[in-house]
Design goal:
alpha/beta, 8-stranded parallel β-sheet, 20 helices, about 30% helix, disordered N terminus, binds 1-deoxynojirimycin
């Protein structure tokens, strides 16, 4: 019996049990029976989901203005569904002046004009539901746009009823209230001439931070969440959610500050209280999924956010893996044992009451194959498949970023004019124009780390601009490799990265051990091979991934034997063996041949 059927049958029988108990309830007997746990985990649809992130600006343009739109997403729902994913996370689609591509919201109840209308949104949601998929929206409520009506009012006078919706402070010794910096360069405070006070903006000047200590603000947020949930959306990805509670004393950075401002800004004194209130007021009333962008939250603090008994969030994004190749905004070389250690730490840091996410890319990070694989002509395809194998067999809900299923690569940026991102443009002003960093050095670093790498338009086919738009010029240039790297080519080639993702997603869906099974790294120190097991009772899998361009004769650690091959990216046929002859960027998923207890992996 397949996994999904198993779960369905379990749910169906639970529904029967529930009906019987409900009947008993009338006569005074207890009513609630929890679903049977798997490996200690309560089964939940969002634990079994595979999420696909759509960045609407770059997905598909249907009206020829060079900017993606909601109709474009609706027109490609079959493509998304065919991949096998069942949840779509939509980056912000709300009305915005686009200082930060929609992460600066002017009206939370209106669709961005460039993206379409509310009718287009409803059509999109309908299309998603018709295909038995779910939609998760981006909830960006640490800050709004400075063009939001609340801020327009707030800045008018010190006694405006909306003044306290934002964080205003007088100057300190004639300067900013403290020395905090914005993630987009410069001070995090901006002097507003109308009232002579500063407002806080941890991101762009046009993104003033909302004052969550004001209960009116929190209830405005809960109301707008209900507005979208009542339309039928299935949850939220919550933008920089740990920043909502700030230290009211606004102390300066500590003397020995290491530059990781997010660890200062996150997890203020009321964060848990506010999230529990949000859960009580809103989330608990719907069957939805929540994932917090937990920038600045340590692994030690994570269970406090995601332990189901605390009723805060379902899961968070932890950035240790995706940012392994960066340090203080600069690219750094990374090693495989470092990456493996992160996954082991995360696994050990969470028990069966908590849940994790797995991702190595999104709209804020370079392309997965360029950052963690090898995007050269020889290895782009096999390394993208190795990464896909890892994403879809680690423990946690996997998030696939649009275009990664095609093996889209970083963009060969040449000059500052090639970039759109406010982070890059402000960085250029702060570092290059002041001659603190040379233009060459800055651009070399941005080529490796810039968010724009992930934001170039989706490559649909080999027509001009990759079929993304009929406009002469898309909002951000298309990668010139689109004639080879595009969705049409991928669909027609049974060996494409896209079809490999499909097979892996299908395998995950059929295999409870790959969702709920124990995770164990069986060779943490190996510099090139990532080998791990996933075990659920007697059901055990062995994943072996060669993260290098070298051929490797790999002897499995003692007690382990590769059994039946479930999937392999290079068409291997080795089975029932303790030595694997791995080619460059070889990735395989086996049944484990020995019993888990004999191999000591339970
Ligand atoms: C995180 C988002 O992912 C990013 O794109 C944005 O710039 C910041 N939060 C500010 O909203």
């Amino acid at each position: 019996m397949s996994f999904s059927r198993n779960v369905l049958v379990a749910c169906a029988s639970l529904a029967l049990v529930a009906t019987a108990l409900a009947a008993q309830d009338a006569t005074g007997s207890p009513a609630q029976t929890p679903p049977p746990a798997l490996n200690g985990y309560q089964p939940r649809w969002w634990k079994e989901a595979v999420v696909y992130q759509v960045y609407p600006r770059s997905f598909k343009d249907t009206n020829g203005d060079g900017i993606g739109d909601l109709k474009g997403i609706t027109s490609e729902l079959d493509y998304i569904q065919h991949l096998g994913v069942n949840v779509i996370w939509l980056s912000p689609h709300y009305d915005s002046p686009n200082a930060d591509n929609g992460y600066d919201i002017r009206n939370y109840r209106k669709v961005m004009t460039e993206f379409g209308t509310m009718a287009d949104f409803d059509e999109l949601l309908k299309g998603i539901k018709q295909r038995n998929m779910k939609l998760v929206l981006d909830l960006v409520v640490n800050h709004s746009s400075d063009e939001h009506a609340w801020f327009v009012e707030s800045r008018k006078s010190k006694d405006n009823p909306y003044r306290n919706y934002y964080i205003w402070r007088p100057a300190k010794n004639g300067k900013e209230p403290n020395n905090w910096t914005s993630f987009f360069s410069g001070s995090a405070w901006k002097l507003d001439p109308t009232t002579g006070e500063y407002y806080l903006h941890l991101f762009a000047e046009k993104q003033p931070d909302l004052n969550w200590d004001n209960p009116k603000v929190r209830h405005e947020v809960y109301d707008l969440m209900k507005f979208w949930l009542d339309k039928g959306v299935d949850g939220f990805r919550m933008d920089v959610i740990p920043f909502v509670s700030k230290d009211p004393a606004f102390p300066d950075f500590p003397a020995n500050f290491n530059g990781r401002a997010e660890y200062i800004y996150a997890a203020g004194p009321h964060m848990h209280e506010y999230l529990q209130e949000m859960n009580r007021e809103v989330l608990s009333k719907y069957d939805v999924m929540t994932v917090g962008e937990a920038f600045g939250v340590t692994l030690q603090e994570t269970p406090l956010l995601v332990d189901e008994r605390r009723h805060e969030l379902n899961m968070i994004f932890n950035f240790d893996a995706v940012r392994l190749d960066q340090q203080n905004g600069r690219w750094r070389d990374w090693t495989l044992p470092e990456l493996k250690a992160i996954y082991t730490r995360q696994d050990r840091g969470l028990d069966a009451h908590s849940w994790n996410t797995v991702f190595l890319s999104n709209h804020d990070n370079p392309r997965i194959v360029s950052a963690f694989g090898n995007d050269s002509a020889a290895y782009r395809v096999p390394s993208a498949k190795v990464l896909a194998t890892m994403l879809l067999t680690l423990k946690g809900t996997p998030f696939v970023y649009q275009g990664d299923e095609l093996g889209m690569t970083d963009y060969p940026f040449k000059s500052i004019e090639d970039f759109d991102d406010i982070a890059v443009k402000n960085g250029w002003k702060e570092y290059v124009l002041t001659r603190r960093v040379s233009a060459e050095d800055f651009l070399a670093n941005m080529r490796k780390t810039s968010r724009d790498n992930a934001r170039t338009p989706m490559q649909w086919d080999n027509s001009p601009n990759a079929g993304f738009t009929t406009a002469a010029k898309p909002w951000l240039a298309v990668n010139s490799n689109y004639p080879e790297v595009n969705a049409r080519q991928a669909g027609e080639d049974p060996n494409s990265i896209y079809h490999y993702y499909r097979r892996l997603i299908d395998l995950r869906r059929r295999t409870p051990a790959l969702v709920y099974g124990n995770y164990k790294d069986v060779d943490p120190a190996h510099p090139k091979v990532f080998a791990y097991t996933r075990t659920l009772g007697k059901d055990a899998y062995l994943v072996v991934l060669n993260f290098s361009s070298d051929a490797i004769s790999y002897s499995l650690p003692a007690g382990l034997k590769a059994g039946r091959l479930e999937t392999a990216n290079l068409g291997n046929s080795e089975e029932n063996t303790t030595t694997l002859h791995l080619k460059a960027w070889d990735g395989r998923v086996y049944r484990l041949a020995v019993s888990p207890s004999r191999a000591g992996i339970n």
